[in-house]
Design a protein that fits this description.
2 domains, mainly alpha, 14 helices, disordered C terminus, MetI-like fold
Length: 327
Amino acid sequence: MRDYLVRRTISMIPTLLGITIIVFAFIEWAPGDAATAILGSRAKDGEVEFTQAELDRLRHELGLDRPAPVRYLEWLVGLTRGDLGTSLATMRPVSDLISLRMGPTLELMVTAFLLSSVLGVALGAISALRRYSATDHILTVAGMLGISTPTFYIGLLALFIFSIQLGMFPLGGRVSPGATDFVSRLHHLVLPAFILGLDLTAALMRFARSSLLEVLKSDYITTARSKGLAGPRVVLVHAFRNALIPMIVILGMRLPILIGGSVVIETVFDWPGMGSFYIAGVRGRDYPIIMTVTLLSAFAVLAASILVDVLTAAADPRVRLESKREG
C-alpha cells in the first residue's frame, strides 16, 4: 500500500506541471494583461485615460514585457522554493493573500460536504426503504430538480426568498459588521453552505438509493432475513456497509463540483474565500494568483482521487489485496 501511494503521489507531478503550462498559455493568449486592468480600473475611477507610454512603463515595472516562457520559469522556480509569487495588483505576496482566504473557503466547503453527505445518504436510504411510496416519489423529483438546476440560480433564489423576503438569513458576507461571535458566523454560513452542497446532496441521494436497493436484492440479505434477523439490523449491519463502498467513490469524485461551486457561491453570497479571490485575479489578469489557485485546486482534486482509493481499499478487502499486489 505504501509503494502504491508513493507511485500515485509521484504521478501527480507531471499532471500538475501540465496544468500550469496550459493555464499560463491561456492567460497569455487572453486579451489584455494586468497592466491594462490596473490602468483601466483607475480610468473608471475618474482619472485621466492612460496613454500607451504609461501602459508600457507599467508593463516594464511589473515585468510583463519579458518573454512569457521566462516569466513562467521564474514562477515555477519560485514555487519549488515555496514562493508563490507576488500579486501584480496589490504587490503583496500571494501566500499572504491566500492565507487570509483559505480559512473561509475550507469552512464553507467542509460544512457543505458534511451537510450534503449526511442528508444525501439519509434521504437516499429513506427513499430506498420506502420504494415507490409517496415519499420516494417526492424525493426523486426533488433530487432531479437539485441536479438539473444551476447553482447560481438556486443561490440567487435563496437570497431573494430567505434573505430579502423572509429576512431569515443575512444577504451576504461571513460575519455581521462588529460581530465576531460563533452564532453570527453560523448564521452567515448555513445558507451558502446548504446551497453549495445541494447538488452533491441530490446526486448522492439518488446514488445511495440505487446502491442500497441493489444490495437489498442480494442473496445474503435474503438469507439474513430468512434467519429472522430484525429489519433495521439487516439494513444497518449487513446492507449499508456494502452499499457504502460505491458511495465513497462518488463522495470523493464530487470534490471538483464543490471547488467549482464555491467560486459561484462565494460570488453570489459575497463570501471572502478563494473563489471570489480567484475571480478577482481573473478580472485583473493577475497571473500569479490565477496560477496558484488553479494549482491548489488541481492538487486537491488529485489528492481526493488517491484518498478515495485508500478509503475504498479500507472498506473492501478485495480492493486492499489488489492494492498490495500492485505495490
